[in-house]
Amino acid sequence: MNIDSGQAVSSAQSSLRGKKRGKWLILTALIAMSATYIWADARLLARWIPIELFRDVPEVTQLHPVVKLNKDKLIEESKKIGIPIRITSDFRSSYEQDALYRQGREEEGAIVTHSKGGESYHNYGLAIDFVLQLQKGQVSWDIEYDGNGNGKSDWMEVVAIAKNLGFSWGGDWESFPDYPHLQMDFGYSIRDLQWGWRPPENDTQNTPITGRS
Questions:
Q1: Between the CA atoms of 151, 154, 159 and 160, what dihedral angle is there, to the nearest 10 degrees?
Q2: DSSP readout, 141-199?
Q3: pTM listed for this prediction
Q4: DSSP β-bridge partners for residue 181
Q5: Fold type of domain 65-194
């Protein structure tokens, strides 16, 4: 075999090894991606199992720390642009939710919720309701009111601040819009919460999903 032939064979072998190495790299990457997907999907699938089957779930009695922090920021940021607001509801027990549900049905008053106890993000400390604070202690639910005189709806300015903080707004719901309602669900559905799953107290990931008050 002459020198040229030897170089050709060596070059062909190197090329073959390179192709095999490339295939292994691609295969390794695909396996890693698949493993990551399966792990992430398994975390979601796990929520199909009531966690109460494995351990006691502490009762929720107050706002989630991240929701409370952003509630305070919402009040502060709204005040900076001349829009004082009042939080009319935050954590609400299942007992209080049932009482609210009876309004307009078994008791006098207008229907204000379609959620029974345990069916509201309020019951898990993940929602707040707000209203515009006027002078002399009066409040307003007028979503077109422009109290700071900048030509914009005060209500929608507050909503914009809330969304920037990570809240989703009940006014975006197609059926039964709830204009005072703001929530942070962290990707947890009502069913997840009913089955005992809870967002970590230091969870800052806000992934709004369609929910109801």
A1: 30
A2: --TT--TT-SSS-HHHHHHHHHHHHT-EEGGG-SSS--TTEEE--TT--HHHHHTT---
A3: 0.72
A4: 129
A5: Muramoyl-pentapeptide Carboxypeptidase; domain 2 (3.30.1380)
Q: How many angstroms separate the first and last alpha carbons of the chain? A: 83
Ordered per-residue pLDDT tens for the chain, 213 residues: 555 555 554 555 555 555 566 667 777 766 666 555 444 444 555 566 666 656 677 889 999 999 999 999 999 999 999 999 999 999 999 999 999 999 999 999 898 888 999 999 999 999 999 999 998 889 999 999 999 999 999 999 999 999 999 999 999 999 889 999 999 999 999 999 998 999 988 765 544 433 444
Q: Which residues of 31-54 are buried (b: 16+ CB within 10 A; e: fewer)?
A: eeeeeeeeeeeeeeeebeeeeeee
Instruction: Report the distance separating Cα 51 and Cα 160, nearest Å.
Output: 35
Phi, psi of 145 (to 5 degrees): -65, 135
- Contact indicator for 78, 157 with CB cutoff of 8 Å: yes
Neighbours of 157 (CB within 10 A): 19
List the domain boundaries for the chain. 3-46, 65-194
Q: Are 167 and 70 contacting, i.e. CB atoms less than 8 angstroms apart?
A: yes
In the structure encoding, which two tokens stand for residue 29, read together?
Answer: 């990457």
Q: Is residue 41 left, alpha or beta, with left meaning phi > 0 and alpha meaning psi from -120 to 50?
A: alpha
The SS3 call for residue 138 is: coil
